[in-house]
Amino acid sequence: MSGKPRHGAARRAGEAKPQTAQMEAVRRASRAGRHDEARARGRALRAAFPAFRPLHHLAWEVEREAANPMAATSRAWDWVQAVAASVPALEALRDSALAAGRAALGAWAINRLRAMDGRPPLELPPLHNPLGDLTLAQGVDMDLAQVFLNDQRYDEAIALMRHLDHPSARNNMGLAQFARGDVAAARETLEEAWQAWPGNLFALDRLMRLRLWVGGHDAAAPLAGPLAGAVPLRGEDAVAQLSGLIVLGQAQQADRAWAGHGAARFWKDSDKALRALFDYLGAVAAMALEHWDDARERSRAAMEAKPDFAAAAEARLAARLHRVPGAVDVEVGDFGSWLPVSLLHEIRRSGKDSDALVRLLGRCDATADYLGAAAQYGGAAVRAVAVAILQQRAADGDEVALAEIKALLGRPCGPDRDRSQLHHWLASRGFLARGDRVEMLVGGRLRSIMPLSVTITAEPQESDLSEADQDLLEEAVEMASLGASARALELAQQLHARLPDYPTAIGNLAAIKEGLHHPDEEVEALYRRALGIDADYVFARAGLVRVLARRGELDAARELLLPVHEREEYHFTEWRAVLMARREMARATGDRSAEEAIDDGLRDLRERFG
Prior knowledge:
Elements: H1 20-31, H2 35-48, H3 54-65, H4 69-82, H5 87-99, H6 103-116, H7 136-150, H8 154-161, H9 167-179, H10 183-196, H11 201-215, H12 217-220, H13 224-229, H14 235-247, H15 251-261, H16 272-288, H17 292-305, H18 310-320, H19 335-338, H20 341-350, H21 354-362, H22 368-377, H23 379-395, H24 399-408, H25 416-428, E1 438-442, E2 445-449, E3 455-457, H26 467-481, H27 485-498, H28 503-515, H29 520-533, H30 538-550, H31 554-561, E4 569-571, H32 572-589, H33 592-609
Parallel strand pairs: 3-4
Antiparallel strand pairs: 1-2
């Protein structure tokens, strides 16, 4: 008697398959929340046993457990392709696609299930799209392309979109081409998409960036007019309009666009994350114009729509402090909108191979204008790559790249620390001569800055003091700065009595006694005690150098200052102490020119940090 074999019963005897324990290890990791581990284990099993179809089910389980509906849809699609008549696979595709907002793909799975039950397919009307309605078949391809893009399956996305004559299809195809590093093809695709559908502002924004990549500001600037004058039809286009105008430096136009389209009807049914991005970009435009109240309200709205929106939280803080966004990372788009994802993968693969990384960055042919814009608007990760490329070019003699690096010193891109490090790099490579001053954004204001030999920061330093002791220390320092020396000494002695072996308490007492002209022997003993406890305590080392220099023991002072040159980064208060020590040495040797140069450095430090 023969009958229809059970699913899997017809497999060849001895077919290679993983051990049950291996599959259970994947499930245990997934259920424990170790999703990356589960994915890695699952990929290894699929590579080792490509014909074992239950591994597709397992891959879908992992993404479902991780609450990642787009990735789950991708795994369910592969499961359906491997086992076309599998009801569980089609049900997984249906549920994941609908959860991911891929309605057409979900409907396709539903109709396949209905066909298997002998029921007629659902008759669905054309899918509405402001850029042109879609048939169900076109909608399925569009949904699949989005799923493949999310899963970095770019060739498959391109294959789906190549023959679909719809603006959204052209957009997706251009995105996929750029992601895999084919900038020329992406530019051609997006140019055609915009020319054929002028209302396709998503394509226009991306096209503007690619023109900037290939031809610099002169090539991209003519698109500012079409961007500013268009009326967006979708939330995606409204976001693209603001994005493009901000990158082109048209903050006033971006601000007007936010005001003009903030109440558009398409936001009613729009994704909350998209609306949050629109409000965030509106805040960025307002900050550029120093419209602080508007910036604060827009960034607040963005956070309400998307509570985990870190960039919006930083923007709101900057707006509350009435600062240009110079101490925050402005992110006008993610990494993939600025640099090909393929480049990111290659950077990761290069690991610690510096030669491979140099060759890799050298292959990027984006203009200096583009790299500067990426550094300013792309966020921390994009800026790191863009600046590294510019530095490599500048080191090879590229004057345009060098000029762009110097220009970045005056732009609000990232925290002050990043600009300080860039300034140090220019000085250390000899691109800034002694005494050269450059315009640099510090603390939200442009200042004329001289080169320093180290990186100077103003970031708060951690303290292990109790709150009461910290208050006592800060009051002593404040009294000393106000000239209330007697009160400062009283407070410093109290702190020293409470913490006799704490270097900061000892050093603070020594500094106040030094300022009150107590005997050098008394001050020296305190500095030496603090330095004996903590050899890295800069204030004690610098204080002891001053004492030795006044006494004429210059060789000992120079030797004591040598470890200072081994550090590459200092808090500005530490660096001030070092400069004061050097000034005392210059005075002791009668080197007036060195003393004047150090005075310039101290004045420069005051201009930067107050």
